Amino acid sequence: MRPSRILVLLLAMLSGGGPALPGAAQEQPRRGGVLTWFDYGDPGRLDVHSESPLGVQQATAGIYSGLLHRDPDDPTRIAPDLAERYTTSPDGRTYIFHLRRNVKWHDGQPFTSADVKASFDRILRPDFKSPKCGAVLKRIVASVEAVDAHTVQFQLKAPVPYFAEAVASAWCRVAARHVLEKYGDLNRPEAQIGTGPFRFKRYERGSVIEWERNPDYFVPGLPYLDGVKQYILVGGATQLAAAKAGRVMLWDTWPPMRKTQADELKAARGDQVHVYRHPINTIFVLYMNATRPPFDNPDLRRAVMLAIDRQELVQKGLEGAGVPCAVLDPKLVGDFALPLAEVETMPGCRQPKDQDVAEARRLVEKHHPGGLDIEIAFRQVGNYADRAQLVVAQLRRIGIRGTLKAYESAAGYAIYGKGDFTMIATQDRAMDSTDPGDVFAFVYARDAGSNYARWSDPGVDELVARAAQETDRERRRRMYHDLQRMILGGAPGAVPIAWVEGWFFVDRRVKNYKPAPTVYDNNTFMKVWLSE
Amino acid sequence: MLPRVIARSYVARRLALFVPTLLGASLLIFVLMRLVPGDIAQILVYQTGSESSAIQERHIRQIRAELGLDRPLITQYLDWLAGVLRGDFGYSYSQRRPVNEILAERLPRSLELALLTLLLAALWSIPLGVISAARRNTWLDYLVRVLSISGLSLPIFFTGVLILYVLVRFFRWLPPLEFVSVLDDPVENLKQLIWPALAQAYYISAPIMRLTRSQMLEVIRQDYVRTARAKGLAEGRVVYRHALRNALLPVVTFIGWWGGRLLGGIVIMEIIFAVPGLGTALVQAVSYRDYPTVQAIIFVMALVFLVLNLAVDLLYGWLDPRIRYA
Amino acid sequence: MRRLLDRAAWFARRQPLGAAGAVLVTLLVVAALFAPGLAPHGPKETAFAPYLPPSAEFPMGTDHLGRDVLSRVVWGARLSLYVGLASVLVGITLGALWGAVAAYLGGSADTASQRVVDSLMALPPIVLALALMAALGQSVTNVIIALTLLLTPTAARTVRAVALGVKEHPFVEAARAAGCTRGRIIARHILPNCLATYIVLVTTNVSYAIVVEAALSFLGVGAPPDEPSWGGMLTAGTQAMEQAPWLIVFPGLAISLAVFGLNLLGDAIRDLADPRLRGGLG
Known about the structure:
- The complex is a heterotrimer.
- Chain A is about 30% helix and about 25% strand.
- By secondary structure, chain A is α+β, with helices and mostly antiparallel strands.
- In chain A, the strands form six sheets. In chain A, strands 13, 14, 15, 16, 17, 18 and 19 form a seven-stranded mixed sheet that branches.
- In chain A, strand 5 and strand 6 form a beta hairpin.
- Chain A is globular and about 75 Å long.
- By secondary structure, chain B is an all-alpha fold.
- Chain B has a two-stranded antiparallel ribbon.
- In chain B, strand 1 and strand 2 form a beta hairpin.
- Helices cover about 75% and strands about 0% of the residues of chain C.
- Chain C starts with a helix and ends in a 9-residue tail after the last helix.
- Chains A and B meet through helix 4, strand 12, helix 7 and helix 15 of A and helix 2, helix 3, helix 7 and helix 12 of B.
C-alpha cells in the first residue's frame, strides 16, 4: 500500500464516520438467530453487475464477496475480502491481487482466478450495461488477466487514486464463471451462487427474501446469524408499523425515517431500539435547464443560487437532517470538502438572507421586470413534495412565480433525461463511494449522467478530469477546493442544497451492525449477531 | 327451466361478445401506457446509474431494440395479440421472467382476497339491509344506514392505515408480513388477509346494504307477499321466507359485479398489508412501464370481470324462471 | 319563505337522514363558497412554525411545513367540491347523452357503443386513473379528466337502460309519426324522461369522486401537493400520526362528514326520485 492510501484511511478514521452504535466489541458474539429487516420495493431483477437500484443490492449483498470490501468492523476502511492482499506497481498502473485459497462457491465448486476474470470481463465489456461497477471501472481499467489460479492482475489506463475503493464497491462482486455460463446472467434466484457468508434460500416475489448461513464460508466461525430475512414493504405506514411492532430489527434503506416517525418509534419501543441520525452520502440538488430560457441566462441561475434558503430547506424539508450548502460533506470526505465555516459565509449560503435575496431580485428584475412564471418539476417520491413547496415559496420572494408540476417517479426520470423541464426543485443523487470526485462526475461534468441541467463549464470540466487523475493528495485536495468555490461562487445549472441525512434505527438485540458511508455497502451482515 | 339449447346459444353469444370487449380494453390500455412518459429502457438506465450521458443513451437504444420497442406500435400490438392467442403473454423485462408465471403466482392470491372481501361484505350487509327494510323508518333503520354509509366515508387507504396503527398501538400485534399460501397454512394466511378484507368489505358494504334494503322494500309491497300476509303468516316468516329470496337476486348480481371490480380495487389494501397480489404487481409494472405485464394483468382482470358478470346472469336466470334470455 | 320552511319540515320528517345530509352538504357548500373569507390564512402560506398543536391562534394546528390546517381544510372544501362537481357534471352529462343517443339510434351504433362502454368498464378504475394521471401529469384539471373518464361509461350504461324503456312509449312513436327529427326526439322526449336518473347519478357520484381523488393522492398521483386536497393532507398526515394527530383528525373529519352528508342526501333523493333505482358506483 502506498503512503497516500494510508493517509486517506487514517484521516477517515480520525473523522470518525459512522455513528457510535451499541454492541461493544468486547462482548462475546452469540451464534444463531434470524435477522429481519425490509426492502422498500420488490427488486424483481437480481443481477448485481447490471442493475443499480438499492433493492437489488440489499437482496444479494450477503451472497457474494468482492476482491476487497468495506471492513465490517469499520466500514470507513477498505479491507481484503476474496483477495488476501494486493500490491501496486511503482507507476500505479498495475494492481496484483493474491486470492484466498480453499474458497468454495455455494454449489461446492472451487473458486479460482478464472471466476474473477470472467466477472470483471463481463462488467468491463463495452456493450454490457453496468451502471454502477462498470460505470467507474470502464473508465480506468485496461485489462484483467489471470496470472495463475490464485493471482489476478489489473492493468489500468492511467493511475487513479481511488482504484481500491472502486473495486471494494458492493456492486463489484465476483460471480462464478460456471454460473454465468449456465444462466447467461445473474437475475434468477437459482443463479444466486456466491462465496459470501449467506446462501440464497428463497425469494417469494413481492413478499420476502431469505438467506441462510453458508456453512462453508471462508472465514471460520462466520457468519454468526443462522439467516437473514428481508420483507418487501412498499407502504411507508407499513414499514413504520413493522418497526413499531418489533418485526423488523433495523432500518437502513431509502427513504430514511422522518423525524416524526423516529419519535413515534422511540415512543413505542423505548429502550429496545437505538435510533440514530446518519449521513446517507447523498446530495440534494436543484436543477435549472441551462439550454432553454429563462435559465440559459447565467444571471437568472445566479439569482436562484443566491435566493434559495438552504438552511430553511434543511430545517423544514429535511426536518433538520442535513448539511446545508456544502458541495462536499466534511463528514464523508474529510478535508477534501471546503470547511463549512467558509461555505457558510459565501453569498447564497450566508444568513440572514436579506442581502442575497435583494441582489437576486435585482438580477431577476434586470431581465424580467415584473417577474416571471415558470414550471417547477419534481418526482412524487419520499419527501420531495415538501421540499418542492418550500422552493416555490422561496422563489416567489425574488419574483419567480413557480407552478408545481409533480411527476410520477419514472415519468420524472424520462422527462429529466430528455431535458424537457425548466426547473427541478429537488432531486437526490446518491454517491457510489466516498471519493470526492463522485459528485462532480455524476452531477457537474458536461457528460455526467445526472447533469440534467445540461450545464457545462470548460474550466470545471478540465479541473474535474485533472483532479480525478491526480495522485498527489495535497494537490488533489486543492483542486477540489477550487472546484467547490467555482460552483458556489458561480452560476451552475445545479444548485447544491444540502447533503442529506436521515433517521435510522437498530434493535438493541442486533450487535456489531455498522452502517457504511454509502447506502450500498456493508449490508452482508457477516459479523452481525443477535444477543437473544 | 329453459330449454337447454336456448341457454347454450345464449352463453355462446355472450362469450362471443367477450372478444370485442377484451380487444377494446387491451387496446385502450396499450395506447394509454404508451402515452405515459418514459419507457422501461429509460427507467432502467436513468434510475440510479452512474454512467455518462452518452453511454446512457446507447444503453437505452440497445434495450429498446432488444425489446422491440423501436418497432411501429401497430406491429407491437399485433405481436402481443398473437402471443395471447397462443396463450403466451410475453416476457417481463422488469422481473426477468415470463408474464404467465406472474399471472399464475398472483391471480389466485388476489382472487382469494377478493372472495374473502365479498364474503365478509355479504355476511354483514345483507342482514343489515333486511333489518333496515323490515324496520324501516325506525331508529334501528337509521342506525344501520348510518353505520354502513360511514364505511364509504373514510378513504379506504386511511381505514387500512388506521387498522395497522390500532393493531400495533393497542394490541402490540401486526399481521404477518410474509405471505403464506392458504394451501400451506390457512390460519397464517387468514391472519394476514382478514384485515385488508375487513377494511375493503366495510367500504363496499354500503351499496350492498342499500340495494338489499330497497329490494326488500319493493318486494314487500308486492302481491304475493301481501297474500302471504293475508293468509296470516307471521311477519318474520313473510320477510325471511318469501321476500328475501326474491329480493336477493339483484343483490347477487350486484355482488358479482363488485367481485369483478374488486380485483383492481384491492390494490391499495395489497400495498398496505404487504399482500403480493395482482394489484401490487400491476402498480409495479405500471411504474416500470413493463408493457407486457401491464397488458396481461389488465387483460386478466377484464376477463374475470366479464366471466363473473356472465356467471351472475346465468345464476340469475336459473334462480328466477321469469327471466327470459332475450 | 313560509312555504319553503314547511317543505323543509316535511322533508326532514320523511327523510330525517336526508335532512341531516342536507345540513352537512350545506356546510360544505358554504365553506367552499366563502373559503377566502372563512380561512384566516392562505392555503399555501408556509409562514408559521411547523407542527403547532391546536390553539386559539391555530384552531386546527399547523402542518409539517408550517401551514394553517384550518385554512387548508376550508380551502379543501372548495377543491373537493370543485373536483367532485366538475368531474361528475361533465362525466355524467357526457355519459347520459351517450347512453340516450345510443339507445335511440339502436342497431349497430348501439352495439358498437355498448362494446366501448364494456371495454371501459372492464378496466379496473383505480388502475385506469393511475395510468391516466401518469400520462397526463398531475394537476387538478387532470384529476377531473381522469374521474370523468371513470364516470362516463357507468352513466352511459345506466341512462341507456332507462332510455330504452322511454323509447317504447307511445308518445315517442307519435312524435316519430309526426315527422320529428331524431335530434328533436332525443332532445325533447328521451332526455327529459331520463332526468330523474340523471339527478340520482349526479348526487350519488360526487362523493365517489371525492373518495377516488383521495385514493389517487395516496398512490402519489393526485392533485399537486401544495393544493389543499383533503386526501393529500390525510396522506401526508399519516407520517406523523402520534406526534401530530391533528393532521389526520381534521382533514379526516372533513372528508368523512362531506362524503357522509353527500351519501345521505343522495340516498334521500334517490328514494324520492325512484325507489327502484339502484347501484351507482358505490
